[in-house]
Amino acid sequence: MLPVFNEEAGIQVTIDTLLNYIEQQEERYELIFVDDGSKDKSVPIIKRALAQNSSIKLVEFSRNFGHQIAITAGLNYSKGDAVVVMDADLQDPPEVIPQMIEKWHEGYEIVYGKRMQRDGETFFKKFTAKMFYRTFRKLATIDMPLDTGDFRLMDRKAVNQLMKLHEKDPFVRGQVTWIGFKQTSVKYHRQERIAGETKYPLSKMIKLALDGITSFSMKPLQFVNIFSIVPLVSSVFYLGYLIASEITTLLQLE
Question: CA nearest 148: which of 165, 129, 135?
Fold first, then answer.
């Protein structure tokens, strides 16, 4: 299952690569694309492939709702015994999927990809991603694995449980950790994008980080409470001072 947003430059290569890979496997499959309100030719390209292969499915959004919502929509639409979530730019290599399936056959219900190297990304992107995961682990109430994204395999039981969560702004990788089940990882080398530009600019990265921290940490609320108590206590003391001053003044007049 792949979320798609303005990927016309590389989506045909992605389709051809995945079909060539999947058709060599023994498992039956469906290839689900979730278009997140693309404004380019991504959808027509997918529809041409869909007309030639009934195993390809397409979910279309009326506008751009965001990567995380696109993931949940695709998971909700899926029907397989297991679902692999990956990006449409082939930064998540299909060659890792057999390792995930092997772990699934061993009894693991969630198998996530652990990034050991990230090609084609700026120092700033790598640094902020690294800092986010480590900061999140210190603040959050869940033990989310380091250096992981949304590239993972999920058993149908885990998918069904995840779909019971109804978040307006979901943070999927945090929710997947939170629901439990038997989880493990496979290490992989994250590739450079095959074409186009990243769909996660700084503004979206910040929003994703805030959604994650506010969803799975009480620390921000605790900070707010502390800063709220300080002026409240100050006001109480000031009110006490005014009352005492008024009483003193009245006593002096008598």
Answer: 129
CATH topology of domain 2-217: Spore Coat Polysaccharide Biosynthesis Protein SpsA; Chain A (3.90.550)
- Residues near 51 by Cβ (< 8 Å), separated by ≥ 6? none
Q: Would you say 30 and 79 are in contact if contact means Cβ atoms under 8 Å apart?
A: yes
Question: Which residue numbers in the chain have pLDDT < 50?
Answer: 217-226
Specify whether the CB–CB gap between 84 and 153 falls below 8 A: yes
Residue 103 confidence (pLDDT)? 95
Instruction: Give the pLDDT score at 173.
Output: 80
Q: What is the pLDDT of residues 229-248, one digit of tens each?
A: 556 556 655 566 567 666 66
Closest alpha carbon to 101 in 188, 21, 25:
25
Domain-wise residue ranges, the chain: 2-217, 218-254
Tokens of 97: 């999927």
Q: Which residues are paired to 31 by β-bridges? A: 56
